[in-house]
Amino acid sequence: MALLVALAPARADAIASARSAYAHGDYQKAVRQLTPLALRGDAQAQAMLGFMYENGFGAPKVYDAAVDLYIQAANAGIPFAQAMLGLMYDKGHGVPQDVVLAYKWMNIAAAQARSSQRDYCLRLRNAIASKMSMNQIAQGQAYARSWTLAHVQAGRAAPRCSSRRAKRCAGLFDQEALAVGGGRR
Questions:
Q1: Which of 67, 181, 79, 182 is closest to 129 using CA atoms?
Q2: Collapsing DSSP states into helix, strand and coil, what is residue 104?
Q3: Where exactly are the transmembrane stretches of this chain (predicted)?
Q4: Which of these, 175, 125, 170, lies nearest to 150 by C-alpha position?
Q5: Contact, 105 vs 89, CB < 8 A?
Q6: CA distances from 29 to 53, 76, 147 (A)
Q7: Is the pLDDT confidence value at 180 over 50?
């Protein structure tokens, strides 16, 4: 137990140091600091490292590696990784292009994101929906709902989707998606 308590500040310091290195343009240092954390399963480090691989910051631009990191972080409940994974599916970068999976991940990100980020996720999700049929939207909503409920029950969803708020997160703004005019017939 004492070891876990001691590791938490070290992890926070490493993440803060990596963010500082990134902000100052020292991308290679950020990658060096994030890689060991990501390999140990730190979801925040995985999300940040995925972004760096996606964009070629301090590491080669490797979409496959970015997707792998985003998947791990997204499944751990990191909204940024969920949104980025949605965009990867939308663009077909590192994965086959799939608007249903893009919608699923963007919908999950919107449900779990902080209010300051939610509108942006919703706009991206609705842009994806504009390329989809109503059946595809319904399928994406079902995938998102299923993922969210399973992660809430397992205690792995973001705090904004705790069991107390599971119904709201499982709803994933379904009615809003239809009202925005997402989808073709």
A1: 182
A2: helix
A3: none
A4: 170
A5: yes
A6: 14, 25, 35
A7: no
pLDDT above 90 covers what percent of the chain? 66
Distance CA 46, CA 27 (A): 15
Torsion angle of the four alpha carbons 17, 19, 20, 24, in this order, in degrees rounded to the nearest 10: 140
Stretch 150-165: mean pLDDT: 62
**What are the extents of the domains in the chain?**
1-76, 97-185
37-76 pLDDT per residue, tens: 999 999 999 999 999 999 999 999 999 999 999 999 999 9
Task: Give the separation between CA 165 and CA 152, rounded to whole angstroms.
Answer: 9
Radius of gyration for the chain, computed over Cα atoms and rounded to the nearest angstrom: 17
The two structure tokens encoding residue 140:
């994406």
Q: For every residue of 65-86, which 3-state class applies, written as one string?
A: HHHHHHHHHHHCCCHHHHHHHH
* DSSP β-bridge partners for residue 184: 133
Task: Measure the CA–CA gap between 113 and 120, rounded to whole angstroms.
Answer: 10
Question: What is the DSSP code (8-state) at residue 98?
Answer: -
Instruction: Residue 27: name the closest of 46, 45, 52 by CA.
Output: 52
Say which residue the tokens 């239809």 belong to.
178
The phi and psi torsions of 184 (rounded to 5 degrees) equal -110, 165
